[in-house]
Amino acid sequence: AIQHELLAAIEEVNMYAFSFLVILSYVFYFVFATVCLASGLYYVAELIEEYSVTAKTVIRRTLQAVVVLHIMLMAFEDLPFVYLVLSLVANSMLFLLLPSFPSIYISDPKFIVCSCTDSPAAFYAFISIAHSPLQTAPPVLCRMSQ
User: Fold this and answer.
1) What average pLDDT does the segment 76-97 reach?
2) The pTM is what?
3) Would you call 22 exposed, middle or buried from its count of C-beta atoms within 10 A (0-12, 13-18, 19+)?
């Protein structure tokens, strides 16, 4: 009986030790992922600071590609028009910030219009999709095949 109680106590200690190791590994993973993400973002920020003209060109071309993609989605896909227009306007507003790219001032009226009106409106519209009732798989698949 004593041996059985001793084995049960050892199993309980092992259970808590393994639980502690799992929690410790999650903390280690979170810290490691955060440091990796921060160092990657820092490296990208250094590249943008070093090569601001190239970064401006890349940003302009990316925004142009996104605008073209939105126009193609409007023309060829059966997606909600309002959401596409809101997203298109939100991405197009970023073109207003490009002329003064390396120096963007928070007090600039273009920045206020871009960040405080249009982007939150598009964000709110897309969040409302997340709160709408979900469709089951068959109607979604049927819409995709039409």
Assistant:
1) 81
2) 0.60
3) exposed
